[in-house]
Amino acid sequence: MSEVVTQHGYIQSLPKYITLCERNYLRVLKMLPLEEVGQQRRVTLADAQYVIEIDSCAKYTTDISIKQISSISVFLPQVHLSVRLYHDAKVAEVIHHDFHQRIKPSYGYPNPHMHQKDEKYQLNAFLGDWLMACLESGRVPLNWDVNNGMV
To answer: Which of 2, 21, 88, 143 has the most CB atoms around its CB within 10 Å?
Structure first.
């Protein structure tokens, strides 16, 4: 007797994904500059420099970009992530990486660009790991002007 083997496509765990995005939202709030377009915050992590910049602000969303401005090695590509914060849902999600198109929820495998099946989840997990590393051991220059410019 023969059996029919069916292959199921990749099915993402939505509760696991939403939990990751909620945690990223709380982490990124701790590192955001003032919520005005163009505002930046510099972060030093190990020997690399990063800039978090506010790209756009709306009533329920804020778009930020995280760019690496100094390289650790010529062999490692520099990081560039675009992240959207959804304030009503309290989640943060990577929407672009390295100037590519929007990230699909899942990809068939194999595919011409060799994306992983769970590429979107992996990018958001990377964002979470990067934010944790910054919060635990990164250095952020602070504004020590406690008198708001008054002498």
So the answer is: 21
